[in-house]
Automatic annotation (TrEMBL):
It comes from the Bacteria. GO terms for molecular function: lyase activity; magnesium ion binding. Residues 42-228 form the HpcH/HpaI aldolase/citrate lyase domain. SUPFAM superfamilies: Phosphoenolpyruvate/pyruvate domain. Mg(2+) binds at residues 137, 163. It holds the Pfam family HpcH_HpaI. Keywords: Lyase, Magnesium, Metal-binding. The lineage of its organism: Bacteria, Bacillati, Actinomycetota, Actinomycetes, Mycobacteriales. This is Putative citrate lyase beta chain.
Amino acid sequence: MKSSNTIDTWTDESASGGRSQELPYTVARSWFLISGASDLPQSLGSGSDVDILDLEDAVPPGKKLAARTEVVNALHHRRAWVRINDVTTVFWKDDVAALRDSPGLLGVMLAKTDSANDVDTIAEGLRATTPVIAFIESAAGLEAAGTIAAHPRVGRLAFGSGDFRMDVGAGTDRNALTYARSRLVVVSRAAGLPAPIDGPTVPDDQILAVDETEYAAGLGMTGRMCLHASHATTINTALSPTGREIEDAKELITLLGPDGANARKGSDLPRLARARRVLDRARMFGLDALAPELH
């Protein structure tokens, strides 16, 4: 089982929406995709937990070189993740070579990861400390998800829902992708990874963003990508413990004792572990008033 304790954080308060400390990528909820071909100084600091500078789908082939240059320049002034092109393209080698020594690189997101060998291919060109998030976007990738998740350089999985839907010919009903999402949750847990990141929100539909994010959370996903900065708060709220969940967790821990000394049934200790996770997440997300330290 891999440990998910190796984390990286953002500490630039001025560039992080006013937060004094950024979240570890292992628990980050909202992941805002920003085209590397856009005006990056204007785009960064979105209010999301993580900004992703995208060199893949958001950049046409003719603009890859210019976008890569812009991203590398931006990483000299602040820190971010970067989504690179997949290993079947002619672009990934230059992506990796340009990013390897970028001072602000937090990690690399590999598009269209179909096997653990894909991770090996790019990892050879990266620093040993650079984590990789693998995007699962095809039937082949989903079948290999267990071995991909077990790769020592993979820190988390993400679901490329749009490309996956096209690859397998699935309909638009969200239930058509329930198996895929659930499989990513299960293999992540089995490999000792944090729960996976769901595919991006539809840019112009706030109500749908809430509904779909809550659905993904119900399946066990704890992060989601977004294509519009306004969805970051929506995602963060949907993927944070509610006030009721926090209160229930506090009451259960008081009843059973912080160490479970008052447990009487076989289900008490698993319930206690879940309650402690709820409060840990609440504190991490800044809900300290609702989740004070237990003594």
